[in-house]
Amino acid sequence: xxxxxxxxxxxxxxxxxxxxxxxxxxxxxxxxxxxxxxxxxxxxxxxxxxxxxxxxxxxxxxxxxxxxxxxxxxxxxxxxxxxxxxxxxxxxxxxxxxxxxxxxxxxxxxxxxxxxxxxxxxxxxxxxxxxxxxxxxxxxxxxxxxxxxxxxxxxxxxxxxxxxxxxxxxxxxxxxxxxxxxxxxxxxxxxxxxxxxxxxxxxxxxxxxxxxxxxxxxxxxxxxxxxxxxxxxxxxxxx
Length: 239
Fold this sequence. Notes:
By secondary structure, the chain is an alpha/beta fold. The chain has one domain (38-238). Helix content is 49%, strand content 29%. The chain is built from seven helices and eight strands; from the N terminus they run αααββββββαααββα. Strands 1, 2, 5, 6 and 8 form a five-stranded mixed beta sheet that branches. Strands 3-4-7 form a three-stranded mixed beta sheet, covered by helices on one side. Strand 1 and strand 2 form a beta hairpin. Helix 3 packs across helix 6 and helix 5 (146-166) packs across helix 7 (222-238).
């Protein structure tokens, strides 16, 4: 009778031991080796979904300064105005554009390859608080609205110049390098944590190797850039 009463207890102890063993095995990686743990493709898929949820990634930010001069002549008189305008430009990746087909696992080379969407340029965010305007208008400025027109023309030219600077070959190369490093690191860290220390991650743009780097221009139109800067300056003055 005592032996029969102990059988359920023994069975329960065995089950508990198996459960504990599975827990320990999972934390040490033993369960993965026995039951087949996550492979690089599975880990990469999880990383991809996590990055897509972030939506946008700012990989590089740069500040540029534009110096523009505009001159106008009327009625035999002339006026000239110069504007010094700084502005910030963001280089972004739209991570929502990353698709499963953009992430491939090369088993023979032990390499995870990622095809990136093109860099998008956002801005410029002009800094009107640091802007400097000066010049001479003389009689023409006194008799007409020449100064206002010159300042407006200078601002439009300055915003266009800031965009042009942001699209330079050196700047785009730096933005590409920063984007590749960020994405490669984001995919590599989970793989390293899972024990895949020899896996390489290589991120590349579709236009990699082209003479002229490709990008999507999301620059703010001149009028919106100026209005946004004025709103920020007004908000700062109210604080």
